[in-house]
């Protein structure tokens, strides 16, 4: 039991999970090797005991860590050290940590001061580093690498929900070290504690669908209508919504590991169901597999959340899960899907398990989703129109991505100033006034009191203002940042969604050649054009959905931001007015 | 005529004076060597023609510059390069450039970022450097060195008022390089273009007065009464005041050199008299000689004023001359003095010249001023009381000096932030909103206009706020800084004034010993104690004058500051409220 272990990679404990932060090169004593789930209990030289991922350490005696050898994933375009750790959907990674590697894509003219201290409470702790690029591709040069996770492999029993693989997190509004560095990715993990996600929809591509048989017109059809703004999805009559609340802590492994369970209450049943973060992740995977080719599925806020204190971490994660769920609820295709409904309103454990199995066996995934889409009664679009629309959307989403990143950079800078130097300065002004007041007080001159009292009051007012300035970003800038952050994640999914369409358009363009070389029949060519038209209707419907949500979201967040800003400045003016009144009128 | 000259020291031209900025090592062509007044007309390699002080250049052929050899002033505790350039009353130098060398005396805990860019318009140009210490002593370690001047020597005809010796200036709220550096002082000037001022009152010391015969009780007596707050000066029934206005440019030397004349209108005659800066300087010298032992005479704002543009320079100098004159007018001893009355209301040129000659021949200067002070009917003070009072004032003025410098440091930092990074940030926020607005505008989605218009409006509002933030310090912080700056200068005079009292106290303490060694008679000893008592009444009256003015000034400036701050924040809130109203309510 008392065997020694050497730490291979830095590991930062997540608060409240009985984990232990360790540094590369540190020597540990193994106190419990049979924890399971990829974790080992160790004691450091200070006597602190906690869990570390088994892949982060090398145990002195043979047979300690181990596991199957690293998979050869060298066909992924990733850095050597990171290649064997984790890969994920490129779509997912686009949104994973929109803050990381940001400066590399920021508009010129905005210098980001990456090394300045940055201390908003819940985002100040840059846990781990995210410098290795592990995404399969980098559509706009801004993909953030996913963080290595020590979660279960795909072969694990899917009813075993007890392992805490809620990921270490980075980001928030903290500093990221960009994607250019050469630092070693935190995970050198192999084997059991790794999960490889293949980008299923892009692997299959649109070919399968383009030449597939027409689907029977069943109840699963996703209808597209012509609305005022163009093609739109069929929206349910009652808007779906849900509340993510009441995070509760549970423990497992005899209290060694803990997890958080959230209550999710949909407005349809008003009956809460419990879900852990990894259930959300499971849902995300299902939605991505099934709808990702037609609907950009923003990744979960896992990598974006961190906190110096557990409560802040939980609060922030909950807030972001709520944001994610709200967005999913608002989407007509997602909201009405069986898997999403299951997640929101499963009746009991049995119902949940059966639903899960069914969802995982669903074969209408990837590009095949288009076979269920029905632009009912709408005329087929000309391939040139299809291409034109696709390019227009591509330009727009790219431009918006730039704009959003601009705003995030500026907001981050402003956050830094508002929580750092600015309040310090107001505090100093306040102290200088109070200091002068106490000097005046020592004059021995009669009739001094009115001035010194007023000066002290003025000084305290500036100290109050200092606090207000430091607290304000949480009240307004925070929401502006969150919304833009969400949009950054969402926009990061568009290149893949649009890519599916582009590759379909390419196939259709090759139609004549394929017919000439007898690869397809003339009838196939017509079918392909028809299918591409359907895909274009889907993309247009999706863009219109995106636009209407965007207008709603930005309108809302700007109102909130400006409202809070007005209150802020009015309160300052009010405080100063009071301070002013304390001085003798002349 | 076409002889070449080598530049010995950097020289920065004062705007509007036909001067030419030159750099050390530069080669010039001498175009007119017979300008006079210590100036030479030169042409640089770019063909620009202008005046430079003759002592700043070395003319190629023999007999070019020259003048009498440097005086040996090595008994002054100053740096070699500066020692031969200029010295001045230590009292004057305390106030000369209260900003320079400031950081060396700033309270700990306030880091001054001396190299950061600082760009308020009228103070941004650090002309020359002020690193050599030329003051005779440095009472609180904060004396700023005077700047070398190219003005007339004391032997020049005092009716020849036409030479422009208004000094190059530095300071304002600009950066100073502190007094610790070893850079060469700008002036290596010798001979004619130098004026040596000896601190006459501290040279004479209080001994002369302590044992002098009692002065006849004439009309020149300066009475001290017992007021509510203690001993007070006899204040005139009507408060004197004056307005410094209407700066007008004149030229001399056939238009080669120009000068500024200000109109000074006292409320007694309401008749304006014209004065050039050097007339103010003459007045300052007279007041310092005559009253400096009893009344701290703040130095003129010469070294504190600078401007990138001539109008700003003139405006700022006028503002500070006004402040100085107002302070002098408010002082009962100064206001009622013959020399001050002459300055404010001379009838004609002849009256002025006669008055000048008389004032310059006045022998009741230095410590002898106390012989005209009469604490009428007040009991003699015990020497222990005298010492106690003196120490109390010394402590207070020193503490206030620290407090004022604190506030100035903080204010300077704040000024920098408000005119530099902060508005830039608001501008960026504004641009980011507008940028997003124009991206949204390109969406092709219908019903976009309301949001994009509102976003553009919000963006412009933040650009407006940026301008407001940058302009605000001129509206409020400026006056807070000016007032504290004035007090810094004034407080810098106290160590000398208090020093005279301390040395009188020392003499009185030695009384018994002096009697025992027959240096003085027992009667002399009693006289000395009586005289010290008079001096103490004078100091107390002066302190009470100082306190009442201080309370008035700080009350006034704080009200002004806070009033403007309230307006500022209210205007921002108003603007944001309007921006908010442009977004669609939901």
UniProtKB/TrEMBL annotation, chains A, B:
It is found in: Cytoplasmic vesicle membrane. Residues 81-101, 117-189 are annotated as: Disordered. Its main location: membrane. Residues 81-93 have a biased composition (Low complexity). One of its GO terms (cellular component) is plasma membrane. Residues 156-166 have a biased composition (Acidic residues). It comes from the Eukaryota. SUPFAM superfamilies: PX domain, SH3-domain. Residues 171-189 have a biased composition (Gly residues). InterPro entries: AH/BAR_dom_sf (IPR027267), PX_dom (IPR001683), PX_dom_sf (IPR036871), SH3-like_dom_sf (IPR036028), SH3_domain (IPR001452), Snx9_fam (IPR014536), SNX9_PX (IPR037426), SNX9_SH3 (IPR035558). Belongs to the sorting nexin family. PANTHER family: SORTING NEXIN, SORTING NEXIN-9. This is Sorting nexin.
